[in-house]
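step 4 of 6: structure.
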Amino acid sequence: MSASLDKFSRLAALKPARPRAAQPATLRAPDEEDALAKQLGAGIAKNRFGEHLAVSNWFSTPEFVEPSTVALELLSRTRDVSLPKCARAVLEDPANWLFLDTETTGLAGGTGTYAFLIGLAWWDAGGLQVEQLFMRDFAEEHSLLQELAARVAKRPVLVTFNGKSFDWPLLESRFTMTRKIAVPRLVAHLDLLHPARALWKLRLGSVRLVELERHVLDAPRLGWHRENDVASSMIPQYYFDYLRGGPAEPLAGVVRHNQMDLRGLAALFGKINSLLDVGRAAMEETDSLDLLGLSRFLHRRGDANRARTTCERALDAGLPAAFRPQARRDLASLAKRRGDHHRAAALWQELLADPHDAAHACEQLAIHYERRVKDLPRAVEFAQLGIVKLRHLRIHTRDPYLAARVARLEDKFLARLTRLTHRMGPNQAPACAPLIARK
Amino acid sequence: MSESLAVQQVRTSTAITRVHEVLDAFAARDTTGEILTAVRHFPAREAQWAEFPAWVNADLRSAYAAKGIRQLYSHQADAAESVHAGKNIVIVTPTASGKTLCYNLPVLHAILENSDARALYLFPTKALAQDQLAELHDLNQRLDNRFGVFTYDGDTPGDARKAIREKSHIVLTNPDMLHTGILPHHTKWTRLFENLRFIVIDELHTYRGVFGSHLCNVLRRLRRIAQFYGRDPQFICCSATIANPGELASRLLEAEVHVLSANGAPAAEKTFVFYNPPVVNRALGIRRSYINETSRVAQEFLKHDLQTIVFSNSRLQTEILLTYLQQANPHLPGKPETIRGYRGGYLPNERREIERGLRDGRIRGVVSTSALELGIDVGSLDTVVMAGYPGTIAATWQRAGRAGRRSGSSCAVLVASSAPLDQFIVRHPDYFFGNTPEHAFIQPDNLEILINHLKCAAFELPIAPREKFGEVDVPDLCARLAEAGFLHPAGENYHWTHEAYPADTVSLRSVTSDNFVIIDITGAPQVIGEVDFPSALTSVHEKAIYIHGGQQYHVEHLDFKERKAYVKQVDVDYYTDAIRYTQVQVLEIADTTPGGDSVSSLGAQHAAPLHARSPIPDEPVILSEAKDLNSSTGNNRPAHSHSHGDVLVRSQVIGFKKIKFFTNENVGAGKLELPENEMHTTSSWITLERPLLQSLPFTVSERQSGMFGLLHALESVATLLLMCDRRDLGTAIGERPPSPGESDQGKSEQFTPVRMEEVAAENAREFFEPNLYLFDAYPGGIGFSEPLFRVHDLLVHKTRELISGCTCKQGCPSCVGPAGDLAPRAKEAALAILDRLCA
């Protein structure tokens, strides 16, 4: 028997999950359960699948911001495809919006990750109504999901931050695992992560919700503060500890964290709404980098006109030098797309001085002179200039991947050059050689 | 079209004569008869035809007809009927017998009849899945693309995965991807699981040992998920020829499996040749380099314009052989290379191009690793040359099968290296050409492996205590996992309570995923490879010379805690050999048999008793006169016994030797202080009792040396019987622990720790009654010990054949180990012990 005891103690697969010995699971007495509810300020909710805890709070901040039809249209678009008309009517009514954020037992995804706290919020009576559903144990998951399904059925427009790739697929997976409760249907799912990234990554570097609260939403006026906030990375462990009979206090912190995330999400939604709205955006005092970000977002979602005017505004507002070539290149490709080739050519000429964009500009100008202006010698000149720029880049880089890419681009230029000289005929070809030398 | 066919026929008929010309030339040169140890002719065999079963979907039948298949081979029809009748089957047929059709026919029929039906195909490698994809695409085109078929593996782009999950009727994948990518995300695969009708497992024989034990657990998880979605899929498996395909299949699937082993496919005439490189130093048993000999043989065939494939056992050898053959066959300027290499690491497009080149004959020769061994279609080649024994009989036949797939004549040559296995095979052709004795074993209930999969299973779906998962106490293990913080009981079930994704930490190809990375710090630090934990201690200890990709590296520093070895490139004329101290302690004896009275079979009781009494040829026995001494001890007890059971293996690397290349001189040594490594595993062992040892007419050191030599040879033969690698088994000699009831003799030895294998025998004290251990080199054991115990008699007889058949005088690497390491009469002593064991 001692041998078999040894056998288990030696197994690497049974080494404790954490250095600190996990507590053995203990059963809680009913009055302790009430203590948890009290701690969280929760009540017990019941439905046909059982019980769970529900925490309800109404907050006067953030303030409700009038929706913008234009903004909603942009946010709900996926790859240039707009929502159908009937769905748009549902989308435009704020009564249908449901903010959602979950706290989970891990970030890995997959079928073994649970959402133990589902935070929901909606606009109500000029403020934000927050409802959080908490499972005291895995056995309460079905009743939690049933409640969520009912809420989504009532408010089928979901608003999340990174919920499109994390929270919602995870919940879909949870619904599938029940084999009893169908995945609720959404009319629209507006996820703010990608818009936020497009708008503020240039300026902030990181677009975590906390950063956005601090630098975009004017944190002191929001009505909450994050000083004693729990660290997100600790959340799964707090829950596991609680399950094994550990303290409930950290969970109160998790519930508060989730509340703040929901309120931050609602505030961010308001901010993005007014930024994207044509009328309001023009009036606001906006950072030049944010304008460039906005222009790129508009470009990506297919509003080329506004993308151009916003980009021009960004340049006018004194964009930092490092970002100017990027803005010019955006403008040039926007001009090309709408057929304004002369404007595009002028912008590319400006870009020739920039070390990183020069080769691209040369390529575009070579195309421009070959196809539009039909000035083949000029086209040759730019192709040759492009080759010179690339060679320079290749000699001075130590990055093998960049070198390989540059070599490929050079081949493209050489092919273009061969074609051009062939089209020009033998007599004219030598005339171009001095151009390289001059450079 | 008809013209090219005619040309083809002329070519094949002349190919026969050309093959014979080359073989005759070889025979003429082999004056002593020691080089060509076997030349076997296999006459062509006619096909056994059968009609398509009447129930087969008419469109499918015409699609096959359009490919030129209007009739089936008998085994294909049998397979289709068995699957149609709802049975799990395993088809055992050689290469190129049309086994793909055996599973595609019933699966496609089911999909065409009901477009909801889904199937999952498992292949051991990605390349095989790609090959099958091409075949299925071809059929699909003839069927107006009525079904979806995709590969799903590490190479599948992220944005294509969603579409594949929805649209694929047939998903081609590998066990690793099923384990980490599909099962833990089964909710994304509901379409597949809710309609899962068939699971196809190709190359079933590759799932043995560690890999097989893992696969069995992955299948347990797969069945669990399928049951969750209300399905109980049917299994169709294919295996190369091994002795126990039915046993392996039913062990892996844990279900009843119908075995189909009759082969109805035609076969071309084939000649199989064993080629043993000539001896250059008889006393030391040194032969000419088998790599050079392989190149020479291949070159003969190429010179006669015979399309040739050369197999080698490592990537490095592939490159060396390729260089030799390309030098000998320079391609014309402006023409493509006619000799190509083929191995893992080549890009998929390059591989496809080589496969095409082989099929249309542009490429005359290819040098490959095992990459081309499994069923990738390269058309029919004329000859196969193998540099070294591929390790198993099954793999050897598969490689040989790459020549003469359909018709004509072909030739396969096995060039033996001086490794013991190679030498045994070429000197005992009957062992190879007779009924295959190779068995595949798995141990899915190895606790280390099983618990890791139990964790994955809990992640996929909460575990109910009444669930069955292998032959273990599931509630007990769940409670232990809960105690360790991985699971939590809630309601009726155990739920996963950990942030990590358990499948990521479990590799299907090793028992634990603990390994060392090797970092080259000659220039900018760069990771050049990794070694698993057990071999790290012997191969990348400090001051070791580590060889990677033909380059020598000196190990500067071994960071044991961080599992990193820092190395620098060097160029030296020696290699290092670790001195390892191994102790084995018997924890529990599962079974023990006094020697000399039983001949047992390797197959388990329910397997067909093919070898119940395997014929043991009468080999000339050296020192047979010593036989009498055995009885002269005047003791009725048998003088030896063999047992198997649980053991604790403690090993420690205590030093190393520097050994000069070519001369094998010992040019230095060093001490090392590395932590002791403990492993609980299973072992099979032979006990040599005092009367047996005393009766041997040898000195103490000769006896000791003989035992080490014997163990070396026993290990070689054991790997042969178990279809495993030398690394899978460990060896040690130790004093037999005293058992109750035995006399006081040898009391002083009782608590002597058992000793190491490598510290040379000279200074060792004599063993009183030693145990010769052959243990599973994996924590928990991987299922070798019990079969090895059962096959004891076969093991010792084959070992005697190996040693007595070796032409060396005093031992060589091919039998009892290099002569320099042993006392002069070690070989004789080993044989004398074997004679007692065989008596």
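step 5 of 6: annotate
 - The longest strand of chain A covers residues 50-59.
 - Confidence is low (pLDDT under 50) at residues 430-439 of chain A.
step 6 of 6: archive
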